[in-house]
Amino acid sequence: MTFMEKLKHSSQVNRSLVCVGLDPERTKLPECVREKEHALFEFNRAIIDATADWVCAYKPQAAYYAGQNADEDLKLTIDYIHERAPEIPVILDVKRGDIGSTATMYAKEAFERYNADAVTVNPYMGFDTLKPFLDHADKGVIILCRTSNPNSGDLQNLVCGGKMVYEHVALLARDRWNYNGNAALVIGATYPEELRHVRELCPDMPFLVPGVGAQGGDVEKVVKFGCDRTGHGIVINSSRGIIYADKTENFAAGAGNAARELRDLVNSFRD
Amino acid sequence: MTFMEKLKHSSQVNRSLVCVGLDPERTKLPECVREKEHALFEFNRAIIDATADWVCAYKPQAAYYAGQNADEDLKLTIDYIHERAPEIPVILDVKRGDIGSTATMYAKEAFERYNADAVTVNPYMGFDTLKPFLDHADKGVIILCRTSNPNSGDLQNLVCGGKMVYEHVALLARDRWNYNGNAALVIGATYPEELRHVRELCPDMPFLVPGVGAQGGDVEKVVKFGCDRTGHGIVINSSRGIIYADKTENFAAGAGNAARELRDLVNSFRD
């Protein structure tokens, strides 16, 4: 199955538009796992076991593994998801963007070394830096458009020819970069009006929507403005709000509850 | 010493504005090193020994290590440069850009795990995603401005309020992001007119200039348009043109010659 098929399937089977961000920080882990070998993986494994019925995707953030010298934990985590919940796609959040020969190496990293189903990429350098990812027709390529962070407007909101830079990205993705039908966009939950607007521009493209939970995005608006006409088309990511919902040895159950509650909250707005 | 001091010092001591890009690809290595344990590092070590008198910086491209499951080789390479040529700064080319909490993890990766002197970053997501790097006042933060690849104009050349996006980046870097005096810009050698223009906008900021050699940039124009008023201020990177100058077992001597020749060619256009 392609990423797009896998995502559609998992959304339907689990009746869920929720993605869990697997961004574990060693110092924030419960004491019962912190000292274990491969502590980040052990933490993730328990979270995955507890949430696999409530989510449509997992999204490990590569920086947490790279910054903590834990590449092996990332590999173990993705392998475990494929084994434990093979119907759920893995989005490797790396936000890569580099010249063609280098982007080819990054595509190897994401799709061969780590066996991810999809990857996030940065469009600043233009089409030839995205092509080595987009050429993998079975993989998802999720392009930063309007990001959730406070200063995302520094460049993304500059107005060029009557359209903001993020609108140009949405239109380039729709009209030029989606030749394999595997492109998607990142739109932050913290900018619901922009989410509504990009949905108008791109009625059929999936959106990865981070920024609910710790970053404060409004779930109701995300669902109402972000869903496509089939009531799907968004992947709502929560990281800290789920993985740290309970900081005791019951963290996994707490994460399971938080994921189910977010799924149910999202579904309550889906008519 | 800060990155900026180290770079100034190495440029003067070696009378060089040349940076060697350490982007080894296993299948392209000479047979005599290809099968060794830590082949990428062994290749790099020989290149470093042969070029250390002719360069002002080294720039390993993280993708080549990440994509070939060779993080250890990257660590060994940077450690070796610090030991063998402690006066020469290491620019870790990663082009990161992510929300604050994640960028903090990437800064740990670059500055703690790998002990780089400088890092490349992507400005698409705005100031708060660059701040975790810029706050390290002793480290260099080299921001993508006008990149060397063919489609870099897709976003970078959009005109907003009379200025192209890459000009906005140059002005933001100059006026708002350089609060610690540690910001620099990436300008591709393949766009010499833009290089001249950004030098006018930012007379005192160092530029990392990739794109000579395999990508075809014109060295004379890079030097004439890129240097600051002291005849410094540019770091001209060549990767494939130096590391693959000779593909036999004499590869290291070939790289040394290529680095020296590029240094001398660059210097022939200075003052």
Q: How would you describe this structure to a colleague?
A:
Two copies of one chain form a homodimer. In chain A, 59% of the residues are buried. The first copy, chain A, contains 13 helices and ten strands. Helices cover 46% and strands 16% of the residues of chain A. In chain A, the strands form two sheets. An eight-stranded parallel beta sheet of chain A has the order 2-1-10-9-8-5-4-3. A two-stranded antiparallel ribbon of chain A has the order 6-7. The longest helix of chain A has 18 residues, at 251-268. In chain A, helix 3 packs across helix 13. With 271 residues, chain A is of the alpha/beta class. The first copy, chain A, has helices at 3-13, 31-34, 39-51, 62-66, 71-84, 100-113, 127-134, 153-156, 165-177, 192-201, 219-226, 240-243, 251-268; strands at residues 18-22, 57-60, 91-96, 118-121, 140-146, 159-160, 163-164, 183-187, 207-209, 234-238. Chain A has one domain: Aldolase class I (TIM Barrel, Alpha-Beta Barrel), CATH 3.20.20. Chain A starts with a helix and ends with a helix. The interface between A and B is large, with 54 and 54 residues.
How is the secondary structure organized here?
The structure is a homodimer.
Chain A lengths: L2 H11 L4 E5 L8 H4 L4 H13 L5 E4 L1 H5 L4 H14 L6 E6 L3 H14 L4 E4 L5 H8 L5 E7 L6 H4 L2 E2 L2 E2 H13 L5 E5 L4 H10 L5 E3 L9 H8 L7 E5 L1 H4 L7 H18 L3
Parallel strand pairs in A: 1-2, 1-10, 3-4, 4-5, 5-8, 8-9, 9-10
Antiparallel strand pairs in A: 6-7
Helix pairs in contact in A: 3-5, 3-13, 6-7, 10-11
